Structure formats: structure tokens, C-alpha cells
């Protein structure tokens, strides 16, 4: 895969704590900017009501997920919140970049670290909540997790918030459209690659 020059920065990785609105912001980009290619991850988690196989996620069982990893078909993968596996299918990312399209991945911090190993010139964007209280309010408000799962996700969120400095830039998710616009600006006109991350002269 080409990771050099302008190509490398065409890949944008969005990460951030649970319930901050990563999925909603990515959906906004899908709906409003078809020129941006948005990755569909594979996961072993069960679909939530309204989620569509092949569109929200590729929902696979544990055996299929292991097979995808073992055969090198995942760009990155991780167990998230201690239970389910999530991963980015490699080939569609390579195809989007080969087609010259800006590409967006929405993944967790472990996955972001793996992508940075493989593609140091990619742009890493942290989506932050306006405040911790607002994050808790959003997680409780969406009502898709039970109390135990919420507690687990909030523990992960604390670690993820502490890792914010690792990212190239932060977007505070005050409103979906504003955060989405901000993200699209970065996808279409990325800032230069820092000198210590350049893989081509
Ligand atoms: P959810 O179960 O709420 O859809 O997602 C849980 C977490 O999994 C989120 O933090 C999300 O960023 C992360 N995630 C989704 N897709 C991927 C992926 O392909 N790779 C990794 N590493 N994490 C993912």
C-alpha cells in the first residue's frame, strides 16, 4: 500500500471515547460527503436494533473473525471494552486509497496505534466530548448498554481521554454538523506530515 507523500495523509483515523458520537459524525460524513470513503468494520458484537449488516458493520462470528485475522485480511483489530472483537478489513482501504479517495476509519485507540505502526503518515483525529458529564449523559441517554456494560465503557473512556495528546489533532463534538464539517476539512485538506513521521523524503 502506498503510504508516501500526500497519499499517506489521505487516510484519516477517528478515535475517541465511548458515546462521544463517532458513529454519528461518520454517518454525517457518509450522508453529506459521498466523495469521502468510510470504512465498514467487522465485529463479533450482536447487531443493535436498526443496525444493518454490511453497512453499519460486517457482523461475523468469532470463527470468521479469527479466520480474517489469520489470513491477513485485517489492517488492524482489537478486543474493545473487554468483550467483542472489532477490525478494519484491509482490502477496501487499499482500494479507496488507490482510487485517490480520502478514507475515514472510525476505530478504538488500540486499533489507531496499530494503524500508526503500519501507516505513520495517516492523520489521527481525536473526537472529544464537551465535558466528562456530557459523555456520561450521552452514554446513559442512548440506552443501548446495561449498567455493567456502561461501567466497563466508562473505564475505557477514562483511558482514552488520557491518551488525547497522542493524536495529531482534536475535534470537540459540540454539534454533529460542526464536528463533521471539521473532519471533512481535514480529510480534503490535511495538515502536513510531521517530520518524524515522514516515510518518504
Ligand atoms: P460499538 O460497539 O459502540 O459500535 O463500538 C465500540 C467501539 O469499537 C468504539 O469505540 C469503536 O470506535 C470501536 N470500533 C469500531 N470499529 C472498530 C474497528 O474496526 N477496529 C477497532 N480497533 N475498533 C473499532
Automatic annotation (TrEMBL):
Presence of keyword Nucleotide-binding: yes
Catalytic activity: GMP + ATP = GDP + ADP
GO-annotated cellular components: cytosol
Binding site for ATP: 16-23
Superkingdom of source: Bacteria
Swiss-Prot/TrEMBL keywords: ATP-binding, Cytoplasm, Kinase, Nucleotide-binding, Transferase
Keyword presence, Cell membrane: no
GO molecular function: ATP binding; GMP kinase activity
Domain Guanylate kinase-like positions: 9-188
This enzyme's EC code(s): 2.7.4.8
Subcellular location: Cytoplasm
InterPro entries found in the cross-reference section: GK/Ca_channel_bsu, Guanylate_kin-like_dom, Guanylate_kinase, Guanylate_kinase_CS, P-loop_NTPase
Function: Essential for recycling GMP and indirectly, cGMP.
Family assignment from sequence similarity: Belongs to the guanylate kinase family.
NCBIfam families the UniProt entry points to: guanyl_kin
The protein, known as: Guanylate kinase
Gene: gmk
Amino acid at each position: 500500500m502506498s503510504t508516501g507523500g500526500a497519499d499517506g495523509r489521505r487516510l484519516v483515523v477517528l478515535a475517541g471515547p465511548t458515546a462521544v458520537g463517532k458513529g454519528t459524525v461518520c454517518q454525517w460524513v457518509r450522508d453529506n460527503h459521498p466523495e469521502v470513503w468510510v470504512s465498514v468494520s467487522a465485529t463479533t458484537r450482536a447487531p443493535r436494533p436498526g443496525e444493518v449488516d454490511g453497512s453499519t458493520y460486517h457482523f461475523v462470528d468469532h470463527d470468521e473473525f479469527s479466520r480474517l485475522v489469520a489470513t491477513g485480511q485485517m489492517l488492524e483489530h482489537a478486543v474493545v471494552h473487554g468483550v467483542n472483537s472489532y477490525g478494519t478489513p484491509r482490502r477496501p482501504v487499499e482500494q479507496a486509497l488507490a482510487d485517490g479517495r480520502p478514507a475515514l476509519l472510525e476505530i478504538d485507540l488500540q486499533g489507531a496505534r496499530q494503524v500508526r505502526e503500519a501507516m505513520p503518515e495517516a492523520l489521527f483525529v481525536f473526537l472529544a466530548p464537551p465535558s466528562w458529564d456530557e459523555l456520561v449523559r450521552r452514554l446513559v441517554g442512548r440506552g443501548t448498554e446495561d449498567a455493567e456494560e456502561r461501567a466497563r465503557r466508562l473505564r475505557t473512556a477514562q483511558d482514552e481521554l488520557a491518551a488525547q495528546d497522542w493524536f495529531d489533532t482534536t475535534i470537540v463534538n459540540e454539534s454533529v454538523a460542526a464536528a463533521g464539517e471539521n473532519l471533512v476539512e481535514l480529510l480534503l485538506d490535511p495538515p502536513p506530515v510531521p517530520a518524524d513521521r515522514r516515510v518518504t523524503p
